[in-house]
Amino acid sequence: MKATVKWTDGVQFVAESGSGHAMVIDGAPDHGGRNTGPRPMELLLMGLGSCSSFDVIAILKKSRQDILDCRAEIEAERADTVPSVFTKIHLHFVVTGHNLKEAHVKRAVEMSAEKYCSASIMLAAGGVEITHDYEMIDLSGKN
User: For position 92, which CATH number holds?
Assistant: First the structure.
């Protein structure tokens, strides 16, 4: 896996993935940025949420759950000292579908956290306290 990050101006960069997708990364205006893209640490959170959501969806589909949507809402705390690393991250999954079985949703979230999500496992191994929970929105009205 490869990526490149090219400085453009101030604290703005253009990052390009090995698969050819690019995005602007920028700092906050009070740090010399122009707010034209996410901050680097925000990208880490978005990557974590994407990685874990990918797992949750795949596991639920394999369990034949009729899922229509999955949203990961992520909140993080950072150290007050430099380096300002993440100390705590909480992922809250909102899974929407028809006739969802709570045991399957719970298992999918747990398996992602404990076995499959490389980003989550890597951050936890580095000392970040990562917690997960979920809620279900069952559109069949049987929730």
Answer: 3.30.300.20
How far is Cα 79 from Cα 72, in angstroms, rounded to an integer? 23
Whether 26 maps to a domain, the answer reads yes
Q: What is the mean predicted confidence (pLDDT) over 11-29? A: 96
Give the model confidence (pLDDT) of 108-127 as tens digits.
999 999 999 999 999 999 99
143 falls within a domain: no
pTM of this prediction? 0.92
H/E segment holding residue 91: strand 86-98
CB 65 within 8 A of CB 97: yes
Q: Which residues pair with 6 in a beta bridge?
A: 14
* Residue listed under structure tokens 């579908």: 97
Report yes or no: 105 and 121 within 8 Å, Cβ to Cβ.
Answer: no
